Amino acid sequence: MTVPVLTSPDQVASTPLRVLICDEMNPGDLHHEGFEIDYEGNLPREETLRRLPEYDALITRSRTKVDRELLAAAGERLRVIGRGGVGVDNIDLEACSRRGILVLNAPESNNVSAAELAIMHLLAAARGLTRSDRKTRAGEWDRKFLGVELKDKTLGIVGLGRIGSIVADRAQGLRLKVVAFDPYVPENKFERLGVERAASLDELLTQVDFLTVHTPLTGETQGMIGTRELALLRPGSIVVNAARGGIVEEAALVEALKSGHLFGAGVDVFVEEPPTPDHPFLGAPNLGITAHLGANTFEAQERVGAEIVGRVLAALHGDVSRGAVNAPALDARTLELLGGHLDLGEKLGRILAQLLPGAHDLEVTFRGEFAADPAPIVTAALVGYLSGSTDERPNMINARALAKERGLNLAVREEQDSPDYQTEVVVKVTGGAQGEKQRTRTVGGTVFGRSPRLTRLRDYRVELAPEGFILIASNQDRPGAVAKLSNLLGTWGINIAGMALGRAQKGGQALFTLTLDDGLTPEQLQAIRDLDVIDSAFLVRV
Ligand SMILES: NC(=O)C1=CN([C@@H]2O[C@H](COP(=O)(O)OP(=O)(O)OC[C@H]3O[C@@H](n4cnc5c(N)ncnc54)[C@H](O)[C@@H]3O)[C@@H](O)[C@H]2O)C=CC1
Ligand SMILES: O=C(O)C(=O)COP(=O)(O)O
């Protein structure tokens, strides 16, 4: 896809576009016609800030924090930031988007190296490598230490993305059984990799001997392995974190090692990098530490350099089809005509991601006449459906490619008639293992003015503004259910912003949806489920 907003061809011809690489990598050949590329390795931050106003693009690794301070120092010229690697948690994406700066990453290049490092940490912890190394250097010849074999044990992987999948493959070569938890990938990927699927994180933790995490650092994954989760692991387990500091809580990990509950652990990443000299990891027993070296191989850095430089130069010429993390992509006219519907599509996708993640089919039905080609609404629905589960923030540019990568099949149907509304968009997802019962979830909506409205939830008709939190509850259509539920919410001081009722037939199953200003705690949701008038209750965040 070509987005002709980044630079005009005339501009390219007359003045070289300037690119600064401020972190260490192998940038390959720096001579490209029309560009001036300065490679500075480990440029001190104050130098980066000072020089940045003279550049059109900046290329970093995880060392450089691209925050508001850096963006303010950059001024107006900077238009593209390239992250030579996968994780973009060092980049303030929102601030970049607001300033119209395109962020790209290079997610294909270092995953083998990162996966191999995770396997190394597993082996090192299993055999007490760091302990034995330290003792031998200190003059102690300790041959009493007994390690554990990997063969016939079970490895648990959290996050079966690019790196998690390679770890699974290598682990199988070591004759480990592999189980993974990743609610966002479809069943067929598990089947293809020969990996057993755990239905929940807890289910994974209780059945493995070794655990390794390979998710991005997100609101959901930060601290996802804490004291409670570590306690669910079998005594004598091993934990590896070569993804991001804090996915496994640091203090909890140290405690579990000190108490002897864990046999050992390996970490490549810290919450603060570099760690302070008094960091508790440094004194923890049988903990192997590397200095965020997952991507540090000759091969990976050669590939990373070529991939990110190529992508950044292409983007400066207007081609943002590869590696875009935050790109806004539609022209102003389409946005004007479809604006409300794009917002609707994304919200429908986001609701479905919570009702049925990891689907293998997504079908969009358009009813009625749309002011412009409605195809971008499908992309918007994908953005919503895929968001929150990957570092490559799904956006209007990359969502279709990401869906394809994940094995999510798309179907679009158009119906001229829209009996109830001028236009209606209905999105249906289907998921489930091959040969097993397939589950589907459907949501639909329309646009009033420019504001999205939900019109359909599963088989029920509703009319509701999709905002904040939506509590979806079902019951046998009996009097008193709504009153009991709203009383309970009232006692917690939770305000109901909107309500819609629907039922399949009189006296049959009824569905009511409430929009709430605030979320609910797991205990509050359970209390609602425990009401005798409620059959099921579910909370989604829009
Ligand atoms: N130590 C190092 O030097 C390196 C570390 N990394 C880290 O590894 C991470 C993973 O990289 P890739 O595999 O390339 O990314 P990816 O996007 O291909 O895979 C991430 C997987 O995590 C899953 N996931 C997201 N949230 C989850 C949750 N709450 N529970 C379970 N699964 C969840 C996603 O569905 C996805 O399948 C990166 O985000 C980066 O932070 C990456 C490269 C090198
Ligand atoms: O690609 C990633 O996410 C990594 O963690 C590698 O980071 P680095 O490029 O080594 O600073």
UniProtKB/TrEMBL annotation:
Catalytic activity of the protein: (R)-2-hydroxyglutarate + NAD(+) = 2-oxoglutarate + NADH + H(+); (2R)-3-phosphoglycerate + NAD(+) = 3-phosphooxypyruvate + NADH + H(+)
Pathway where this protein functions: Amino-acid biosynthesis; L-serine biosynthesis; L-serine from 3-phospho-D-glycerate: step 1/3
Keyword set, alphabetical order: Amino-acid biosynthesis, NAD, Oxidoreductase, Serine biosynthesis
Highest classification ranks of the organism: Bacteria, Thermotogati, Deinococcota, Deinococci, Deinococcales
Originating organism: Deinococcus carri
UniProt EC number: 1.1.1.95
Homology family: Belongs to the D-isomer specific 2-hydroxyacid dehydrogenase family.
Protein name: D-3-phosphoglycerate dehydrogenase
Keyword Oxidoreductase recorded: yes
Domain ACT residues, every copy: 470-542
Cited InterPro entries: ACT-like_dom_sf (IPR045865), ACT_dom (IPR002912), ASB_dom_sf (IPR029009), D-isomer_2_OHA_DH_cat_dom (IPR006139), D-isomer_DH_CS (IPR029753), D-isomer_DH_CS1 (IPR029752), D-isomer_DH_NAD-bd (IPR006140), NAD(P)-bd_dom_sf (IPR036291)
CDD domains: ACT_3PGDH-xct, PGDH_4
